[in-house]
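User: Run a structure prediction on this.
Assistant: Running it now.
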Amino acid sequence: MDLIKVAEQAFATNKQHPQFFPGDTITVAYRIKEGNKERIQMYRGVVIKINGEGEKKRFTVRKISDNIGVERIFPLESPFIDSITINKHGKVRRAKLRGTLSALRPCLFSMEKQQLDNRQQPGGAKKALEAVKQWLSRLSFRTGVIVLSLCVLCYIFSFAQMALPISAKAKGILWVVFFGLAKTFQYGGLTILGVEGWKRLKARFKRQ
């Protein structure tokens, strides 16, 4: 019996997690080992059950994934739990919510609504594209000309550095760097000029 207590104390993490109750919505940051690599998985759901005491305390979290309920049991003293975050406090009158769909319905409904709202919002790629469009619309014709001028300078430098008294490897690296910058400035300048030209063309047609 003493050996069991010694083993439990050896594996105890003694981490101070926030106090939560059944009905609360929490996010568990759980460390997962895959070979030599380690990653953290964020598991968010509603606490439906807490049992045990002290180092044997466990809690069950239920979440909705693709309209399917998924439950997972976490030992509170698990060394793989990196952190626990309370997202929302629930108002329930039961200590255990397992099998009580009526008690879970308010919490799960709020989670489903939030997931639906997140799906309806534009994705990261669309937001980035809109941000790029707005940024390009604020640039002027002069900016496009300056960027194209930098493109010409980079082209000149990419070939002029061949005359430097350095090794062939260094010349190759410098050529790749300057040629890449030249291409970047070239396409960037043409894009800016194209957007600015399109704006001026539309303004001209509106005046007519």
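Residues 168-207 form the longest helix (40 residues).
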